[in-house]
Amino acid sequence: KAGVTQTPRYLIKTRGQQVTLSCSPISGHRSVSWYQQTPGQGLQFLFEYFSETQRNKGNFPGRFSGRQFSNSRSEMNVSTLELGDSALYLCASSPAQVGTEAFFGQGTRLTVV
Amino acid sequence: DQQVKQNSPSLSVQEGRISILNCDYTNSMFDYFLWYKKYPAEGPTFLISISSIKDKNEDGRFTVFLNKSAKHLSLHIVPSQPGDSAVYFCAASAPGRGSGQNFVFGPGTRLSVLP
After folding, report:
1. Helix, strand, coil proportions of chain B in percent (round to 5)?
2. Is the Cβ of A45 closer than 8 Å to some Cβ of chain B?
3. Quick check: A46 contacting B, CB < 8 Å?
């Protein structure tokens, strides 16, 4: 069974631009979550989607948004990029049930210059 | 306000000995706890989990202990191997928040297993 796939792996953007990251979950998994990892803050929860609906949202500004498609693939978008948005963005997929582990992709390393 | 704490940023252990990684949490609503291992340039890999109705879960060399009254959990690795060298994250989740997956992660502990 293929794992969680995130594209692209690396990205360099300029301040003020916007970026879209993609995540394909494990086949059959309907929940997709996004996390931001920075050296100072660790892994911070961004949001979670299930059946194309946002079920949970972390404490990030509105510049961070996401969506999920009918095939469970998800995208996250960051608009008006800031230098502090430089981070590793991780996507995780889970079966529908609550209280199960999440399986992470390798992440997208975003650098904002 | 850090709800999940891992107070040891790093830990060094001799190969073959026991590694004990600790995690404390503040939110008494957390009812499901997980440990993840992360190598550089890779996503976190799930290791082991425990629900709040248990106080111990074992899987091979990995055992997680949960002390609800102390809001403390620990991961024991016995025996430790050089391949266990990685950053270990403790994570927790609470029910009811949209009934979805929303893990709160600790800052991680870097384990080095010395040959």
Report:
1. 5, 50, 45
2. yes
3. no
pLDDT value at position A44? 93
- Dump pLDDT digits (tens) for A43-84: 999 999 998 999 888 999 999 999 999 999 999 999 999 999
CA dihedral defined by A22, A23, A27, A31, rounded to 10 degrees? -120
What is the full DSSP assignment across B74-106? EEEESS--GGG-EEEEEEEE-TTSTTS--PEEP
Q: Name the one residue in this structure whose structure tokens are 């979670």.
A: A48
Size of interface A-B (CB pairs under 8 A): 74
Tokens of B44: 């976190």
CB contact under 8 A, B101 and A48: yes
First-to-final CA distance of chain B: 38
Average pLDDT, chain A: 92
β-strand B109-114 against B104-105: which pairing, if any? unpaired
3-state secondary structure at position A29: coil
CA distances to A5, A61, B18, B77 from B104, rounded to whole Å, are 22, 18, 26, 22
Q: Could you give the angle at the alpha carbon of A81 between the alpha carbons of A78 and A84, nearest 5°?
A: 105
How many residues does this entry show for chain A?
113
User: CA-CA distance, A31 to A26, in Å (whole number)?
Assistant: 10
Which of A49, A55, A46, A79 minimizes the C-alpha distance to A67? A49
Strand-pair category, A10-13 with A108-112? parallel
